[in-house]
Amino acid sequence: MAATPAPPQAPPKPTWDPRRVEPPFPWLRPTIRIRLTLLYGGMFLIAGILLLSIIYLLAAQAINTGNEPPFKIVDANQLSVTSDNCPAIKSDTPTFSQFNEAISACIDQQRRVALDDLLSRSLLALLGLAVIAFAFGYAMAGRVLSPLGRITRTARAVAGSDLSRRIELDGPDDELKELADTFDEMLERLQRAFTAQQRFVGNASHELRTPLAINRTLLEVHLSDPNAPVELQQLGKTLLATNERSEQLVEGLLLLARSDNQIVERKPVDLAEVAEQAVDQVHAEAEAKGVVIRGEQKPAVVQGNGVLLERIALNLVQNAVRYNIPEGGWVEVTTEVQHGQAVLVVSNTGPVVPAYEIDNLFEPFRRLRTERTGSDKGVGLGLSIVRSVARAHGGHISAQPREGGGLVMRVTLPI
C-alpha cells in the first residue's frame, strides 16, 4: 500500500508523566536516611554551639576582660621594664600613670588574644566533631533503616509480578518488624487472589468458548443447507451475527483480565511491524468505507508480548476506521522513537469529540455519548484493552481531540 503524504499538522503536546521526571542531582534526593543524618548532625551541631558559647562566656568572665589590672606601680627607683609582647611598655616611660595605663592595655590585649585563641581552637574542634557526628549519624541511620530497604526491594520484586517473594524480617519485635509481617500477610492474600483469578480466567476461557463454538458450528451447518427456507436462513444469519458478537465480547473480557497483570515473558517486538500488520488486517474494511490509511512506520523495538501489542495497534486502527466520516476520511498510523521511548500514534478524521468525554472512552462498555448500548462497531472494550495492555507493558496511552473532528491516540512504551 502506497503511503500518501500527510498534511502538515502541529505535533501533539507530549503528555507529562511525573513518574519519569528525574531530579537534576539524584544523589541529593531527600531520603529518610539523609533527613535523619541531618537531624542527628544538626542537633549535635546546635548543642556544640551552645556549649561553646557557654564556655566562652565563662572563660571571659573568669579572666575579667576589660577590668583594671590587678596591680599598679606607685613608686620605684631606677625602674626599667621592657616587653616583646607589649611594645607600649618602654623603659623610658615618663610617669607612673602612663606606665600603669600601658600595662592595663597590654593585659587587656593578652586576654583578647587568649579568648580568640580559645574560640578558634574550639571552632576547629567543633567542626571536626560535627563531621564525625554526621558520619556516625549517617551510618546509624543506614543501620536503622536497612529493614525499610529490604521491604522496598521486596515490593519492587512484587511489582514485577513475583508474588512469591517475602520479606521474612528477623530481629527485635519493633515497628519495622510489624510492618514487614503485615506486608508479608498482604502479599500472601494477593498471591491467593491472583492465583484464583488465573484459575477463573482459564476455566472461563474453556466454559465460555466451548458453547459459543458449538452454536457457531450448528448455525453454519444449518445455513449450508440449500433447501432451508429463506426465513430460517435469515434467522440463522441473525443468530450467527449475535453469536459472533458474544465471542468477541468473551475474547475481549478474557484479554482484558489477562492484560491487567504485568508481562513476565518479554521478547523484542518492533512496533512498526505490529502497526503494518494491523493496517493490513483493516485495509479491506477501510476501502469499503472509503477511508484512506497512510503514515510512515519507523522501527521502534520494545520488550513485550507481540500478540498483546498487536491487539493495541489493531484496536486503535479499527476504531479509527469505524468511527470516521462518511466521505473523504483518513487514518494516519506512525511509529517512531522519541526521547528514549517507542511511540505509536493513530490519528483520524471523524466526529467532534468533546474534551470532557475523552476519559470515558477508556472505560469498559463506554462509547461516545452512549453507555452500555448496542452497536455494530464493537463491544465497547477496544480502548479499555488498549489501556490495560499498555499499562501491563509499563507504558500509557493518551487521547486528544483533533481540530475539525476525530482523535489523536498516542501510545508510549518503554524501550
Automatic annotation (TrEMBL):
DNA damage keyword on record? no
Q: What is its main location?
A: membrane
In this chain the Histidine kinase domain maps to 203-415
UniProt biased composition (Pro residues): 1-15
Reactions catalysed, as given in the entry: ATP + protein L-histidine = ADP + protein N-phospho-L-histidine
Q: Which UniProt keywords apply?
A: Kinase, Membrane, Phosphoprotein, Transferase, Transmembrane, Transmembrane helix, Two-component regulatory system
What is the designated name of this protein? histidine kinase
GO terms for cellular component: plasma membrane
What are the protein's GO molecular function terms? phosphorelay sensor kinase activity
Enzyme class, one word?
transferase
Question: Which taxonomic lineage does the organism of this UniProt entry have?
Answer: Bacteria, Bacillati, Actinomycetota, Actinomycetes, Kitasatosporales
Q: What Enzyme Commission number does this protein have?
A: 2.7.13.3
List each coiled-coil range: none
Where does this one sit in the cell? Answer: Cell membrane; Membrane
* PROSITE patterns the record matches: HAMP, HIS_KIN
Q: Which Pfam families match?
A: HAMP, HATPase_c, HisKA
Which residue ranges run through the membrane? 38-59, 123-141
**Entry membrane topology:** Multi-pass membrane protein
Taking every annotated instance into account, which residue ranges of this chain make up the domain HAMP? Answer: 142-195
Q: Which SMART domains match?
A: HAMP, HATPase_c, HisKA
Residue numbers spanned by region Disordered: 1-20
- Domain of life, per the record? Bacteria
Q: InterPro entries in the record, alphabetically?
A: HAMP_dom, HATPase_C_sf, HATPase_dom, His_kinase_dom, HisK_dim/P_dom, HisK_dim/P_sf, Sig_transdc_His_kin-like_C, TCS_sensor_his_kinase
